[in-house]
Design goal:
With 225 residues, the chain is of the alpha+beta class. Helices cover 31% and strands 22% of the residues. It has helices at 8-25, 59-73, 131-146, 195-214, and strands spanning 78-80, 83-87, 96-98, 107-114, 120-127, 161-166, 169-176, 179-187. Strands 1, 2, 3, 4, 5, 6, 7 and 8 form an 8-stranded antiparallel sheet that branches. The chain is elongated.
């Protein structure tokens, strides 16, 4: 009996069966697809702030001492013009308020006064570490007050100065070295404006007591032991 030759199609089928059997017998690889943890870097130590030198002088503390002494020396009452001006401790914080816009290390204070007749005014003082700061404050206040009144220089008072009066009050501005000084009259009940006599008396006070309040820049004196 003669065998029939194996057809090519049959050979392809046998090869496919052999491949499947081989694949089934092959051991299955175990694949680890878990990602390796990324190491967390250790935080770098925060550098310690550099301490100030032993002879460091805080300019804000110096200006604060000067301002506190200046306020202590202010006259109460302050005679100027037709009225006698007294400290008004009911305004602000016991008669004192910080000047808005004056930033550390400068120190600015507004001190309130009144009269028995109903007039009201304030003396503004600001002390800066240098003259440039006082000039900048003078120019800043000039811009603010110019929107309210017409300002002009008074030849009879210390320069630089600017004075003006209007419906929104009366103002006298001065720059003295590293200081800014302003007299602000809110209301007056007299026949004439007290601005000029108040400005004149304020300048006299400043010059007369400057050595005294600037001495506070070095701090309190030590007592003999």
């Amino acid at each position: 009996m003669n065998r029939k030759p194996v057809q090519p199609r049959g050979l392809l089928f046998l090869a496919l069966i052999a491949t499947l059997v081989f694949t089934a017998c092959r051991p299955v690889d175990t694949l680890d697809i878990t990602p390796s943890p990324t190491p967390t870097p250790e935080p770098s130590p925060t550098p310690s702030p550099t301490p100030p030198p032993a002879d460091f002088v805080d300019p804000y503390e110096v200006n604060t001492n000067v301002m506190e002494r200046l306020i202590e020396l202010l006259p109460d009452p302050l005679p100027a013009g037709e009225e006698e001006w007294k400290r008004n401790f009911e305004e602000g914080n016991e008669g004192i308020k910080n000047i808005r816009g004056v930033r550390k290390p400068a120190v600015g204070k507004e001190i309130y006064y009144y009269t028995q007749q109903g007039s009201k005014m304030a003396l503004n003082f600001a002390v800066f570490p240098d003259e440039e700061g006082a000039i900048a404050e003078f120019e800043r206040k000039q811009g603010l007050r110019s929107s309210l009144v017409n300002l002009a220089e008074d030849d009879d008072l210390r320069k630089p100065n600017l004075l003006g009066a209007g419906l929104y009050g009366s103002f006298a501005l001065f720059q003295i070295d590293n200081y800014f000084v302003e007299v602000l009259v809110e209301i007056f009940t007299t026949s004439t404006s007290p601005l000029e006599p108040l400005a004149s008396e304020t300048l006299k006070f400043f010059e007369r007591n400057r050595e005294g309040f600037e001495a506070a820049a070095s701090g309190p004196e030590e007592e003999d032991g």
